[in-house]
Structures are given as C-alpha cells and as structure tokens.
C-alpha cells in the first residue's frame, strides 16, 4: 500500500511537470542554426519586417544558451490549478533546474503533493525530488526518474504518442523554439510597446491551428507518418483547436516574456514564462545513481505484482 501511494504521488508530480502544454522541438532541433528555422518559418508564416525581427530574436536567443526563468502554469478543470516554477534553464541541449510550487487547488486534488519540490531535466530525463516520507517508502531514495527515451522503447503506438508528446512538451521550453514557432504563424503581428517587470519591450503575437503547429514541429521524430497523423487527429477530437503565443522582446533582441495558451473543452491551458540574466551558469547534473529510483521500473513491478495477485 505504501508503495502504491508513493507511485500515485510520483505519477501526479510527473503529470504536473509534463503538462507544460505547448508545441516545440527536441534537442536535435535546438542544434540547428536559428537562421534556418527562421527562414523555413518565414516561408509559410511571418513575412517582411516582423519576420526579420523574429529571426534576429531567435538567433540572439539561441546564441545566449541559458537564462534564469520563472513560469506560471494554469490548468483548467477539477484536477487543475496553477503551478509556479523558478530556476535556471539551458538549451541546446535542454537542461533545467526548477523549484515547483503548486497552489492550494492542485494540492487539494493530490494530497500527497508537497508544498514545494525540485525538478531537474537533463539528457531527456525528468528527475523529481521526493519529500522525506516518500523517500522513506523508497528505501531512502529521494529522486524519482522518468527516462523519456526509455519510455519510447518497446511502447505501443498510443504510448509512443504520449511519450513523444511529453518529450516534446518539455523540450519546447527552449525560448528560441518558441520564437521560431511564432514565426510559423500565418497571422503573426506586432502589437506594440509594453512594460514587462519595468523593462520596455516590444510585443508580438500569433495563432496556429493544430495542423499548422504540427507542420512547424519537427520534434516528433519517434512517430511514423501514421502515428503522427493519429496524434493530430486525437488532438482535434479532444477539442484542441489552436495554439496562441505572445512574445515580448527587449532592446537587446531577447525575449523577456513568452505566453502560450491552448484552448480545450475544459478551459484554457496557459503558461507564462519570464526570462532574465541570459548566459547564466546552469550546470544541471543528474542526481547520484544510488539516490534515484526509476519510475518505469517501479510501474512494471506494480503491474507484475497485480498480475500475480
């Protein structure tokens, strides 16, 4: 029973972290020159002066390589709520070290969720720091690991779609990819000058349909053509119609705020990301192996135990 309770906590924490809903790329896409991504996007999306500005922003952001970040994620429905995250992020490849703080609604939906927890993302694996009681349940191992590459191995088509989408959702937090995605919008436009945390910034916004977002998204490489088409169809059937993105750019051609919004039948999924201190040291490393338990292995053991029972 204790193992089952801990597994439930781990799954809930994992789901919360992965529900940074957006469309983006993987680490390989991050290694591509920003100019190429921008040129491709401009061909089917932004054009003229706006495209030139966004291409410059994408290149400057890619070159910066890292930043301090604070995010707020809002989820709809009875199991929804909001989550605040803050820490450091590097990209190319993506690495994050964030402290997560759920609101009261989120914690009410999952009584095992702690007031704060630490999340690492490194080498396409998610690590979540457990509280002391949960760690005691796991023989003192205080970190839960979900290896997204391992999750894709041997999975069926539906599981591959879920795992690939989860991997994409994490990797999409790279702000350079968000700018490239905005470039792909056929209606991207300049909104005007606004203040962001006291800093003067220029705001740009655009909207993409599910088809347009998937067309711009080259990260779902683990899916074949049929699986990719099915993923798009599943998104449409779930009631997701479009993806909205707003980017605020400072005088140095760097984004200081990125907002995304996905409308669902349950309500909007919103993520607001604020960036500062570009070029900051990240240095994210995986926790020591003897302090980590594998989420996938644990779930496999639970399934085998259930089958045996």
UniProtKB/TrEMBL annotation:
Basic and acidic residues composition-biased segments: 27-39
Signal peptide positions on this chain: 1-22
Lineage: Bacteria, Bacillati, Actinomycetota, Actinomycetes, Kitasatosporales
Ranges in a coiled coil: none
InterPro entries hit by this protein: LolA/LolB/LppX
Keywords noted in UniProt: Signal
Protein name: Lipoprotein
Organism, as annotated: Streptomyces durbertensis
Stretches for region Disordered: 27-47
């Amino acid at each position: 029973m204790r193992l089952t309770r801990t597994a439930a906590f781990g799954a809930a924490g994992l789901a919360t972290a992965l529900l940074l809903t957006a469309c983006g790329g993987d680490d390989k896409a991050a290694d591509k020159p920003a100019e190429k991504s921008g040129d491709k996007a401009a061909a089917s999306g932004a054009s003229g002066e706006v495209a030139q500005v966004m291409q410059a922003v994408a290149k400057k952001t890619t070159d910066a390589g890292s930043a301090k970040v604070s995010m707020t994620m809002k989820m709809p429905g009875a199991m929804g709520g909001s989550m605040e995250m803050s820490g450091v992020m590097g990209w190319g490849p993506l690495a994050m070290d964030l402290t997560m703080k759920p609101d009261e609604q989120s914690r009410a939906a999952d009584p095992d969720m702690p007031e704060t927890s630490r999340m690492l993302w490194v080498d396409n694996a998610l690590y979540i720091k457990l509280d002391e009681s949960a760690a005691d349940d796991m023989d003192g191992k205080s970190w839960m690991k979900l290896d997204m590459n391992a999750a894709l191995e041997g999975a069926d088509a539906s599981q591959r779609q879920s795992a690939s989408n989860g991997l994409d959702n994490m990797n999409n937090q790279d702000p350079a990819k968000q700018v490239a995605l905005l470039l792909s919008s056929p209606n991207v436009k300049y909104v005007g000058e606004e203040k962001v945390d006291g800093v003067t910034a220029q705001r740009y916004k655009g909207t993409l349909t599910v088809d347009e977002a998937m067309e711009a998204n080259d990260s779902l490489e683990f899916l074949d053509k049929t699986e990719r088409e099915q993923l798009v169809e599943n998104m449409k059937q779930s009631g997701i119609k479009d993806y909205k993105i707003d980017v605020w750019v400072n005088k140095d051609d760097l984004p200081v705020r990125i907002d995304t919004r996905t409308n669902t039948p349950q309500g909007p999924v919103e993520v607001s990301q604020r960036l500062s201190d570009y070029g900051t040291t990240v240095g994210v490393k995986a926790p020591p192996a003897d302090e980590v338990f594998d989420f996938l292995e644990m779930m496999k053991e639970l399934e085998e135990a259930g089958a045996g029972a």
